[in-house]
């Protein structure tokens, strides 16, 4: 055991290429958690906050860029449809707003964080005040070009987000890039049962259209 608190802790993830740094989160309704994301050294020392939430702000779905350079997460505010992608530098401790985005439930990046992929979603269920966070349902997968601050629709996921066999996760798209960045893997129950699908990306990024 490296860290213990009498609250709901979750989502532990080692920083890639750094066996001494672990990210974790304070779980619970997103609109009631005042600081979701934390880091701790592998020996349990130096517990530090990634970001204190602003009033009305929720943060979610943090992940390490696979090359270990940054922690990416999403911020959204009560009463707003869109969201903002943030990058946290674990060396400097700086949080940087990268770009705005449609409401996506899950993000993931390619190896160096130059491209991100997300799954359009609807009103979040992990908030207490669901009326204050009402979002139109979005059935699309998106690719985000971080340097150009642009995003593109790739394909429809059309998942139902239904709970299957007591699991909420099996119908969540959770998109990710193939190792060569040529396609997107995602889950969906659009054909009746949860399955894994692949959406190929065009050979030239300029062929993507908004």
TrEMBL record:
Gene Ontology annotations of biological process type: pectin catabolic process
Segments crossing the lipid bilayer: none
Keyword match Lyase: yes
Ranges where the Oligogalacturonate lyase domain occurs: 2-203
Pfam families reported for this sequence: Pectate_lyase22
Signal peptide bounds: none
Record protein name field: Oligogalacturonate lyase
Organism: Klebsiella pneumoniae
């Amino acid at each position: 055991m490296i860290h213990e608190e009498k609250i709901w802790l979750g989502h532990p993830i080692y920083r890639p290429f750094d066996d001494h740094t672990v990210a974790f989160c304070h779980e619970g309704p997103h609109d009631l958690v005042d600081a979701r994301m934390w880091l701790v050294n592998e020996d349990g020392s130096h517990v530090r906050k990634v970001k204190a939430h602003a009033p009305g702000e929720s943060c979610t779905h943090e992940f390490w860029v696979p090359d270990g350079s940054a922690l990416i997460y999403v911020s959204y505010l009560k009463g707003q449809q869109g969201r903002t992608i943030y990058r946290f530098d674990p060396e400097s401790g700086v949080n940087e707003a990268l770009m705005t985005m449609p409401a996506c439930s899950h993000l993931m990046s390619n190896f160096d964080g130059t491209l991100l992929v997300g799954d359009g979603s609807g009103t979040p269920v992990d908030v207490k005040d669901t009326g204050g966070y009402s979002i139109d349902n979005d059935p699309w997968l998106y690719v985000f070009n971080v340097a150009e601050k642009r995003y593109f629709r790739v394909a429809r996921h059309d998942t139902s987000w239904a709970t299957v066999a007591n699991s909420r996760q099996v119908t969540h798209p959770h998109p990710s890039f193939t190792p060569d960045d040529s396609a997107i893997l995602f889950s969906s129950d659009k054909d009746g049962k949860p399955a894994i699908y692949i959406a190929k990306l065009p050979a030239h990024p300029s062929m993507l259209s908004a």
